[in-house]
Amino acid sequence: MASKEKKPAPLPFPSDPGAALFLELMMQMLAFFILLTSYAVIVDDKRLAAIGSLAGTFNPMPRGANLSDGEGPALPTRDIVDGSTAPKRTAKELTEISKGLGLDGAMTALPLDKNTVRVRFSEHIAFKPGKVELSPEAMPLIDRLAESFKRPEVIEIKIEGHTDDTPTRGSGYQSNWELSASRSMSVFHALFERGVANTRMIAVGMGDKHPVANHPELNRRVDITLKFRPTTDKNVQKGQIHQKQRSVISPPSSSF
């Protein structure tokens, strides 16, 4: 005859009334904390939903745009727009300044590439023959140039003095190189006195080593090369992400 399978004995209930009371208290506290946690999650979800509706009211996004997955139209910042158009805009403004001062043709401003602009003006609008001091007639031009050069997107200003190959006579300088270097320093100091940071400027004397034409008068000139802060794809992407982050209202922290 097969033996009957023994059933496991029930766990003994604590005979001590104090232990039973302690166990019951622990069970009640566990249930209380479970209930409190579930309530906090519900309240937090409702709060996030309410804040999301406010964000959509005060900062509406185009239909279909989703900040969480990075889709939707890009929101360019002012820095990105300025960084990509500053050289062309500056060249255009300087050309208008030249026309306004009646220097059309004697001063030019041309973009060399997407980050560089060259400003060129001839000797007769800035210096007397054989002299290195800027003439009084050149000061209105220097004033306007300084205003453009002080912009934060301009990161380097290279000032080059140029001469022709005619030997210097009666100027007090032994060579054309010394004359060109002194003229570039005169422009340097004039811009510095008008607020252009000297840490961004370089003054160079080129002498007669870089002629642009066979006509001596055209070679006696000052070239100022402006380098602008480069705009790369990485910078644009970083700026767009920063703009998206500013478009979202962060929910306040919960406190219970």
**Tertiary shape:** rod-shaped
**Structural class by SSE content:** alpha+beta
Largest β sheet strand count, sense and barrel closure: 5 strands, mixed
The Rg value, from CA coordinates, equals 37 Å
Provide the CATH architecture of the largest domain: 2-Layer Sandwich
Mean pLDDT across every amino acid position = 75
**Major sheet strand order:** 1-2-5-3-4
CATH superfamily name of the largest domain?
OmpA-like domain
Key phrases:
60s Ribosomal Protein L30, Chain: A, 6 helices, 2 domains, 256 residues, five-stranded mixed sheet, alpha+beta, 5 strands
Could you explain how this protein is built, in words?
With 256 residues, this protein is of the alpha+beta class. It has 2 domains: 23-55; 79-233, 60s Ribosomal Protein L30, Chain: A (2-Layer Sandwich). The chain is built from 6 helices and 5 strands. Strands 1-2-5-3-4 form a 5-stranded mixed beta sheet. A hairpin with a 2-residue loop joins β1 (107-113) and β2. α2 runs antiparallel to α3 (139-149). The two termini are 67 Å apart.
What's a quick, concise take on this entry?
This protein has 256 residues and is of the alpha+beta class.
Task: Indicate the topology.
Blueprint: H1 17-58, H2 78-100, E1 107-113, E2 116-122, H3 139-149, E3 154-162, H4 176-193, E4 201-207, H5 216-219, E5 221-228, H6 233-246
Parallel strand pairs: 3-4
Antiparallel strand pairs: 1-2, 2-5, 3-5
